[in-house]
Amino acid sequence: MGILYSIAGLFFFLALGIKYLKWDFLIAGYNTMGKEQKKNVNIQGLRRAMGNFLLIMALFMIISAITSHYGYRGLSSISLLAILPLAVLFVFHSQKYDHSKKTTSKTIEKRFILGIVIFVLGIVSILFIYAMKDPQIEMNQKDLTIGGMYSNYVKKENIKEITLQEEIPKIMGKVGGFDLGYILRGSFTLENKEEVNLSIYENKPPYIVIITKSGKIIVNYRQREETLKVYQELKDWVKD
Question: Where are the transmembrane segments (predicted)?
Answer without folding.
Answer: 6-28, 49-68, 74-92, 112-132
